[in-house]
Amino acid sequence: MREHIVSPKIYYVIFIALTVLTVVTWSVAKIDLGRMNAVVALTIAVIKATLVVLYFMHVRYNSRLTWVFVGAGFFWLAIMVALTLSDYMTRGWLTIAR
Amino acid sequence: MAETTTTTHAGLAHHFDDIEQQREAGTLGMWAFLVTEVMFFGGLFLAYILYRSKYPVEFAVASNSLNVTMGFINTLVLICSSLTMALAVYCAQIGKRRPLIIFLVLTMVLGATFLVIKGVEYHEKYVEHHIPVRFNTYEFKWEPHSAEGASSQAERPAVETGNVEMFFFLYFAMTGVHALHMIIGLGVLTTLVFMARRGRFTPEYHSPVELSGLYWHFVDIVWIFLFPLLYLIGAHLH
Amino acid sequence: MQTVADITPPRTHYLNATYGVKSWLLTTDHKRIALLYLASVTFFFSLGGLFAMLIRLELLTPQGDLVQAETYNRLFTMHGVVMVFFFLIPSIPAVLGNFLVPLMIGAKDLAFPKLNLLSWYIYTIGGAFTVVAILMGGVDTGWTFYTPYSSTYSNGNVILTGLGVFITGFSSILTGLNFIVTIHTMRAPGLTWFRLPLFIWSHYATSVIFILGTPVIAITILLLALERIAHVGIFDPALGGDPVLFQHLFWFYSHPAVYIMVLPAMGVVSELIANMTRKRVFGYKFVAFASLAIAVFGFLVWGHHLFVSTQSVYAGMIFSFLSYAVAIPSAVKVFNWTATLYKGSISYNTPILYAFGFIGFFIIGGMTGLFLAALGVDVHVHDTYFVVAHFHYIMVGGAIMGYFGGLHYWWPKITGRLYPEAWARFAALVIFVGFNLTFFPQFLLGYMGMPRRLYAYAPEFQVLNVMSSAGASILGMGYLMPMIYLIWSMRYGPHAPPNPWGAAGLEWRTSSPPPTQNFEHTPVVTEEAYEFGPATEDVVSTVARA
User: Which of A94, B98, B149, C481 has its Cα between 20 and 30 A from that of B25?
Assistant: First the structure.
């Protein structure tokens, strides 16, 4: 598979997007949204990370196998977090006789 | 497999059939390594998620004592460095040696800037006795940042200082491991600069630049998550 | 038909291509690196075995009379640490895998030969740290390093031992990385995925676990070390932390780690069964996918080690269900191997004896694993010798049998010499008897309530313990024999032809030992895996020779 050369223009666009998103994260954090603070912050972080992965790291132009590798890594992290939290979140469900 | 080249390329290792196979192997290898890094940092993120949900108030209060401005600047610094790194890879791809070296050096300068700012932050924490080994639980006071915060005594949350120390432990562990990766990255970039100066990279062979770029972007991505999770939790507290 | 005396070895091969210590210590040839690993893992196997011997000596009597309690704690800890991290996890992948993966796919070397050498150095350095830790008195926390004992109260060398394990983990990661990339990108022309030997499928699945699991134990050890320094309480309940978080992180790796130990052995067994019965493995695709399924599902069951911790019952039920699910692909493999044997042309030589041993012991070990996966039963037998017997059946009865079987089977390819078949069969028998005598009584002991990790026990358990210790000494002698005759054969054994077993597979299409570049010409594959025709003239039957 021949290497795809990404034009610098795309890099500049992504750079501006990342900067804007960083400013947005910072500004939104100053407002008290309760639980939504974390959700918004993480959503923006995921968007930024996705842009870096797809464009700076060229994954958009890579083989499907690379996509599988990248996906597997984050999916496995999700497994670790989800199953561990399944323990912590359900601990209070069963009231044990005192 | 791609068409076999009749000329043996200078950068082609003996056990590969052609430069294309070598390039593909290198990319997959670096991504496999980055997957291990995801899982490595992931353990820290898991501990963070757990303790933040257990001690939300303490975490917010402790986070509030961090220097958000410096964190914000550092985030922009790293995003810039990702741009310069991507441009360095582009220069390697089109065979422009001088711009390649310039962009590599710029990336290093930005990386070093990040570490200097981090050092200043760490020093601040050291002085304030917020480092876990030097942590003084009786001394920890949450200082409001604004006049209105100072006047609204009723809104001051009650904190268990032991759990505040937990935040700082995770803060230092996560940013420390991240900084270690940055330092290694600087070492890698230094090697690349030396190789580039000796003319080792051509449009056909520049894998080291590309693969180092992947590593550098990954370290940037980790910080993209660290910034909101560590610095912005308590940002709404005045 | 050629006789043994007619075999002339190749003039130049990878062993004599270059001479001198530097040519070995700075080699990038995967075959030489495999031998470097062979030397290292044998050393650690002996060290771990020494600790085992001391443990079994202490357990001859109900009282704690041979060593002090804390010493005993250190003995079983170091036995576990050394055997798990420095023998079982590297053994088959680093020795047999490193040697065979490029050969089996028709490549000249692994994708990253220098990383391969680095991997061995990292392993050795990590091992050195651990040996230093042992010399300084070792650790008494159990190989599982449970907190808050290990993080707060233990006086042992936790950080030093942890450092050794941490460093060696990177060796695993590099090996796994190398295998995955090599298998994806360097297969010979015509070698499609479903023409690959099942050994390769197993090692691919193992490498997936290396990549996804090992980093987590690394960060766990790092957190443990930081906690010992900072005393923040991340794992200490007295300071607001949760010790079970450590267990979650620890077992997230350590459970898949047991599949790292057994999957390569299963790969070996697939090769042995197919080639010694001259039959294609029954349900090849099922076995291949079962390997991947074990690797994936293996990551979803770690909570079964936490059933009696404060883990929630609901999470326990999920993990219990998933633990039953992970047994299914393993069972598929066992059925398929058995079906392969049916109407096969079986040669009863040493490698297949080890394969039979594997299948039998793996069934027992696997089934008792299902006992343990049931929440209710586990409450009763957790932390008893039942668990100890279960995992030794899999790790020793399974993984080590696979290792020895593979070592014997590929010995002619690796060294160019034939080992003495009679001695080898005798040793296999001794190992079989010794193993059963050592570990079967432990199921009974555990079920009757004898706890593990204690140097004293109730007097009514003594008879079974004496049986177990007697078995251990027999087992030890059984392991000693191959060490002697295999080394003997390297000098005095008859020369091996390229394909002494009449086996299928690309590794048998080159000389024994192979040249440095593996093949004179890159092979082109046109047939399916395990295609057996009639035995050709250059095959020397080892059955006739014995």
Answer: B98
Segment C27-72, tens digit of pLDDT: 999 999 999 999 999 999 999 999 999 999 999 999 989 999 999 9
The answer to whether C506 touches C104, Cβ cutoff 8 Å, is yes
Chosen for mutation from B33, B35, B40, B51 (greatest number of chain A CBs closer than 10 Å) is: B35
pLDDT higher than threshold 80 for residue C80: yes
Predicted confidence (pLDDT) per residue in B171-219, tens digit: 999 999 999 999 999 999 999 999 999 999 999 899 999 999 999 999 9
Domains and CATH numbers, chain C: 28-545 (1.20.210.10)
Whole-model pTM over 0.90: yes
Please enumerate in sequence order all residues whose Cβ is within 8 A of that of B122, keeping only pairs 6 or more positions apart, or say none. B131, B172
- Token digits for C121? 């150095």
| Total domains in the fold of chain A | 1
**Domain assignment of residue A75, yes or no:** yes
DSSP letters spanning B76-122? HHHHHHHHHHHHHHHHHHHT-HHHHHHHHHHHHHHHHHHHHHHHHHH
Please give the structure tokens belonging to residue C177: 């990385």
Residue C346 identity (one-letter amino acid): I
Residue C106 token pair:
């028709």
Q: Which residues of A touch C186 (CB under 8 A)?
A: none
Mutate: best of A1, A18, A88, partner B, most B CBs <10 A: A18
Work out the number of other CB atoms within 10 angstroms of the CB of residue B238: 16
CB-CB under 8 Å, B55 with C177: no
Q: What is the pLDDT of residues B4-42, one digit of tens each?
A: 444 566 778 888 988 889 999 999 999 999 999 999 999
Query: Residues C233, C239: contact at Cβ < 8 Å?
Result: yes
Domain boundaries, given as residue ranges, for chain B: 25-231
CATH code: domain B25-231 is 1.20.120.80
- Summarize pLDDT for C425-476 with one digit per residue, the tens: 999 999 999 999 999 999 999 999 999 999 999 999 999 999 999 999 999 9
Taking CA–CA distances from A27, the nearest residue in chain B reads B235
Instruction: Supply the range of the domain harboring residue A50.
Output: 8-90
Do C212 and A73 lie within an 8 Å CB cutoff? yes
Q: Confirm whether A97 is domain-assigned.
A: no
Structural domain includes residue A66: yes
How far apart CA C259 and CA C261 sit, in angstroms, is: 5
Nearest CA to C504 out of C480, C481, C535 is that of C535
A68: which chain C residues are within 8 Å (Cβ-Cβ)? none
Interface of B with C in 116-135 (CB under 8 A): 132-133, 135
Best residue in C313, C320, C321, C323 for a mutation probing chain A (most A CBs within 10 Å): C313
- Say whether B43 and C176 touch across the interface (CB within 8 A): no
